[in-house]
Amino acid sequence: MADNILNAEPVRKRTRWKGLLLFLAVAGPGIITSNVDNDAGGIATYSMAGAHFGTNLLWSLIPIMVALIIIQEMSARMGVVTGKGLSDLIRERFGVKITVSLLFALVLTNFGNVIAEFAGVASSLEIFHVPKYLSVPFAAAVVWLLVVKGNYRSVEKIFLWACVFYVTYIVAGFLAKPDWPAIGHTLIAPSFKLSSESLGMIIGLVGTTIAPWMQFYLQASVVEKNIALKDYRLSRLDVIVGSFVVTIVAGFIVLTCAATLFKAGIRVETAADAALALAPLAGKYCAALFAFGLLNASLFAASILPLSTAFVVCEGMGWEAGVNKKFSEAPQFYGLYSVLIFFGAAVILIPGIPLFPVMYISQVLNGLLLPVILIFMLLLINNKRLMGSYTGKRGYNIVSWTTVGVLVVLSVVYLGSLLGI
Amino acid sequence: MATTENSIAEILDANVNLFLFFSDILGRPVIAADGSPIGRLADLKVKLGEPFPRVSSLAVRKRRRKGLWELDWRQVQDLNSRAVGLKPDAELGFRPLEVKNDEILLRDELLDKQVVDTFGAKIERVNDVHLLIVKQDLRLVHIDFGIRGILRRLGWLRALDAATNWLFAYQIGEKMISWKYIQPLLSDLVRGSLKLNVTSRKIHEIHPSDLADIIEELDTLNRSSVFRALDLQTAAQTLEEVEDPKLQVALIESAPVDRASDILEEMAPDEATDLLADLPEEKARHLMRTMEKPSREVIEELLQFKEGTAGSLMTTDFFAVGMDQTIGEAIEEFRKTTYPLESVAYVYVTDKDGRLVGVSTLRHLVICERDIPLRKLMNPRLVSVTPEDDADTVKDLFKKYKFLAVPVVDEERRLAGIITLKDIMQERFEE
């Protein structure tokens, strides 16, 4: 309780601290969403970008960051203003048929992503000589229990702590002793020599950074936090900080691989490949940190993806959902959540299953779904009945339509390249 | 549960003709008497007020015309799952769609939206709307929440029924609720206040704990509109039950100042104090100025105490009588206590200076002779705490003596308030 709120004592001095406290209360959704984004697939793509192109593509992370901020800001704004999740809004505005088909596609895509995350768990622990038959069931059980036995607040705290472990990539980056002046140079004066191969890589970077599930997750967790309209700018700050942090981490992954693998001319296809290849070049600590980072990222994403999927589906269909409910109160929620985790883990346990195509397919599905989701988002956020005076301003709308336009074109091109057209 | 069966019974004497689902006729062609196509059925407008309200008009999306066009339901000649046939010259009656506050559009405001089921005290999503043709009228009778509603709209219901029948000799059950238990919610920012289903079980008949759960689950817009629809006492009780302090603050801030301070007065003083302490200082001061003097003074006093002390936990709602009063007088006084006491477990006895000297229970007052003075009946052995005592000390007292309430006295042993078991339990749950 406050000492005495009737004492009109000057509070000016405390406002900065109060502002920080308030930010910490609002923060979380943006930072968590962005960090989960650096999952097994993301780390693989950043490693490849560094190993194959050195620091040449480092600059592309900056426009990607801007796009990430613009897209996520829309999700956060819709969440704060309407207090409803994205699937809820889609159901109310576009009806059952569209909702069911979208959710079906989302479940399929996210199931692919969950499999990819467990593949990340398996391959990162194989570096430490833990067989996948041990690591994957254990990871699945931990992830499942976390949500079934926890409550949202504690789960969110664990997620926020998991973000801290991304620091390992920054440490690994320093251990790799990159050529700092050269990096500064490429950032100030980037080379735009675009071959078809490097263009493909940039599209891959975009594709892995902006995924459909993120928009659903971010909006849902903003709603769950009950953020007041007047605190919206803090929510936006949360999104900006998150996108910034994620870009820094991605940048360090790129330059770690650029300073070592690119120089040695080693080509890699997965994040685990990269970690293994790092050991002789940058020392075993660097490689271990890299592998640990991959484990953390995969576990992190493996807990959030099924949770977010189950939540989004139940919200759209009108079923009870939420980690604060009991199993008997929300059977569909826990059912879907459990199925995604256990089948996702089971697929990885199939002896001799090739992991690379699994990740590849999940990326294709992401690329297919993203343009559709982005267009729905733009339609909703410009709906006066929903957003009132919080629809985008004209100038801002041009920017967001352009961003979405570019992203749609890129993801279609990416999809084409993945499918070999 | 309001099943289909018992509602049918209610309507039987009204000449049941035909049940149909809104999704079966939505989007069907609207055809003039001469068979020429006019447009498609875009919505139905229902006038609220009756237990099973009547569809008053239909909204049609006309060919090559913008917007929705409204036509009286009486102009409909014939309705089936293939088309809506109009009477001769019906076309003259078309006018641009207009919706008043006691009217509701089934598709725009009900279908796919969330509603409050006041019977089950929870929020449900509307998958379909069940209609009934009675004589010449089309009436709204049930809301479909079930998976069947979704399957029907996807067009998969028949196939799935055939499959489950063939495989398991089983059919997925209907999940419908009578309209009289439904309170629609707002679907967008433009509409200001709830369209009250006047014949429904009133929303404030729901238990405040359930109302708090419902409000926690709703979106921002509906939270404040549902909260606004509650009477002062229900609003106060609901606010006490809302667990998230941030949400409590948001709700009280969404109410106009007069209503907000009235609600605070209705709340238990300790709860109101906690809430005021969470509000921005400016707002809290403003609200306190608007409050009636007695409530304000109590809260001002409670606000003095630091968090984690007995003073911050206590409430000033207690029942005390003088030691020289008789039991009959005490009972009379108790009868005159109009505001709801938080705890009536104990009756506190004070001397003429207001110092606490003993305690009794309501049970003893009721069973003893009316002319005995309280000094003879009371138990003078007392366990009490001071406002500065630590909350943990108080908890230990409750644990040790299994009290329902403990009195709080100042340094001169004057009774300042009581701490109830409920307050202690809340404190423990929050940990």
Structure characterization notes:
The complex is a heterodimer of chains A (421) and B (431). Chain A has helices at residues 15-26, 29-37, 40-53, 61-82, 86-127, 132-149, 152-164, 167-175, 180-188, 196-209, 212-224, 232-264, 271-282, 284-317, 331-349, 355-381, 384-387, 394-418. With 421 residues, chain A is an all-alpha fold. In chain A, helix 2 crosses helix 7 and helix 2 packs antiparallel against helix 11. Mean pLDDT of chain A is 80; it is low at 1-13. Chain B folds into three domains: 1-186, PRC-barrel domain (SH3 type barrels), CATH 2.30.30; 203-304, MgtE N-terminal domain-like (MgtE N-terminal fold); 320-430, CBS-domain. The interface between A and B is large, with 31 and 42 residues.
Keywords:
heterodimer; A: 421 residues; mainly alpha; Amino acid/polyamine transporter I; 18 helices; 0% strand; B: 431 residues; alpha+beta; SH3 type barrels; MgtE N-terminal fold; CBS-domain; eight-stranded mixed β-sheet; four-stranded antiparallel β-sheet; elongated; disordered N terminus
Largest interchain contact: A-B, 31 and 42 residues
Summarize the amount of helix of chain B as a percent range: 25-40%
CATH topology of chain A: Amino acid/polyamine transporter I
The CATH superfamily title of chain A: Amino acid/polyamine transporter I
Instruction: Tell the overall outline of chain B.
Output: elongated
Which CATH class of chain A applies here?
Answer: Mainly Alpha
Our estimate of the beta-strand percent of chain B is 15-25%
Contiguous runs where pLDDT drops below 50 for at least 5 residues of chain B: 1-16
The number of helices of chain A is 18
Our estimate of the beta-strand percent of chain A is under 5%
How many structural domains of chain B? 3
Mean pLDDT of chain B: 82
CATH level 4 superfamily of the largest domain in chain B = PRC-barrel domain
Question: What's a concise summary of this model?
Answer:
The complex is a heterodimer of chains A (421) and B (431). Chain A is an all-alpha fold and 421 residues long.
